[in-house]
Amino acid sequence: MLAELKKRIIDGQVHEVFSVPRILVVDDEPLLRDSLRDILLQNGYEASAARNGRDALVQIARQHFDAILLDLFMPDIHGTEVLDFIAKRGLDTPVIVVSGDDSVDSVINALRGGAQDFLRKPYQPDEMLKRVGNVIQRRRLELENRSVLQQMEQSEKWHRFLVNSSPDFIYTLDCEGRFTFVNDRVESLLGYKHDELLGQHYTAVVFDDDFNQAQYVFNERRTGKRASRYVELRLKCKECSRSNGAEGRILVVELNAIGMYEQPDNKFASRYLGTYGVAKDISERKKAEETIHYQAYHDLLTGLPNRVLFKDRLNLAIAQARRSSEMFAVMCLDMDHFKVVNDTLGHVVGDELLLAVTARLHGCLREGDTLARMGGDEFCLLLPQISGIEVVGSIAEKVTVALSKPFHIDHRELFATVSIGVSLYPADGETGDSLIKHADIALYHAKTCGRDNCQLFHMGMNVPLSNRLSLENDLRHALERNQLVAYYQPQVDLKRGHIVGFECLIRWQHPVRGLISPAEFIPLAEETGMITAIGKWMLDTACQQLKVWKTRELPPVRLAINISPRQMEQPDFVEHILNALHQHGLDQGMLEVEITENLIMKDVERTVEKLKQLSASGIKIAIDDFGTGYSSLNYLKKFPIHTIKIDQSFIADIERDGDTSIVTAIIAMAKGLHLNLIAEGVETENQLAFLRRMECDEIQGYLLSEPLTAQAATTMLIENITPLAMFAGR
User: Is the pLDDT of residue 519 over 60?
Assistant: First the structure.
């Protein structure tokens, strides 16, 4: 029996019901008390003994017992007093009275006092064990029943709490579609009190336009997988009072509903009771979806259609024009010098200017035209159903006039012009992509024609742009295909006639176009950002060549390389140069970097700091094309400059018109500042003779030598060739 009490099977699983029962034996006769305890212990119980009534009270107060075997007649405290103690403390421990007095009064008094059973001395051990087992089993059953009831009550409370605390509107309807239950959420969602909806037909809360769809969901009779799931409906909130003039809100919900049936013995005779439903408020989700949809097709700053929506409308215009054999135009507009506004006044002012330009452009449109922002400062106009090119010209003129007036933003007066490119359907393309592409090409030509003008696309515009695109694509592969080549033009000391250095010049050995001058591809590399990688290649190539000459113990010469503005802007510019020299084992004095005046003035503070770091390391700094930029004495004193290179245009003036004033002034200034002076572009003996008379330090140019390959330059150093030897004595 004990084993059965210790384990109980519930829902097909074995659960531990209780631990080993603890029994308290209370008797003043030691022999009987101890023997009773031993019997209990031998039968798997946990037994304790109390030698009298007072000892029993102490133990009962200290710990819990599953049953008590209590003798009535004890010398100190009578057994009935123990029963009173248990009752007053509210203990529910079952008591079996064990007594030699089997009179009816004793039994009745014991049972009235709270005892659950009466066992007369002397007794058989089996009888005693049976009585104990029955009492414990009955007690455990009572506890389990009480626990089940508590769980059911708690479950009902939880269910009521969960239903009323649910963020969803939960309801039940009767067979006629009238509300029989609504949870508390209905008040915050729809504004109705419970009593206002109970007994009302569901149509009282359904938006009028959704009646047809609602009748299938609110009258749902199906269950299981066939029941209604995730049906979107609109519900009417309770109308506000007429005094404030407000209208009732519409709530978008996602509805799930199933039919309710009673469960009789015969499952085929189930009676339909009504519908159970849950309505989830998805108004915020719908708003979010609408916002996402709007953002997917509109520019967030201006609210204009974006590129995706513009292309969609463009394709629609193509379909309509094809059916009706009409013409329409695509205009690409790009604001001139907008980057200057962003860079100088900040993006906040730039955004305000974009908004103001957008407003004025709107005023130039006809009904049915589409203005879109394609990104940055670029806009597109779709002009459907135009009668001729004069319409495009009229709108372009309107745009120009509208934007000619100043904009007043952030207490500043700003001006904004646009360059416009136009393509026509079907003459310039029959697809959306081709029309946008050709309008962009026309826009590019408007930019090259001085900006603030409108250009119509024609096929001749494709050729130079196509060549540029092809050149750009080829340049991106030039490095990886080893098509770049370094050439070296000697720099000669005029007094000694010896080679003192070379300028490292880059050429592009194109597989189809042949040798391409840097004047053709360096501006493109600057524009596309590829100049940084090319500059690193140039530095590494120059260091490798210096190492070759050093290893072969040739006369020491310096090697000059040109530095682009983008290279100077790199945060690791100085470290990269110093690391390259260190990796090739070169002295810093062997390298000279050439920079332009414009580069110096672009970011004075950072440029000064970087040049000072290079100069402190022993690297020489040269100003290339001197005289064509700022030519300020102030920066010559402020910057760590070692060499000035006179621009070849001033050297050419010596031969062309005999103008030597600029060259004379530059030479005098360099000598006064104790700077090394190099004249570049020396091509005639007259130029050479003049520079000798003026005691110019060094020269370079085609009169002495054209740029040489690495092998030819090495040969010149090996054979100690002095290019000025042929002019000696002249």
Answer: yes
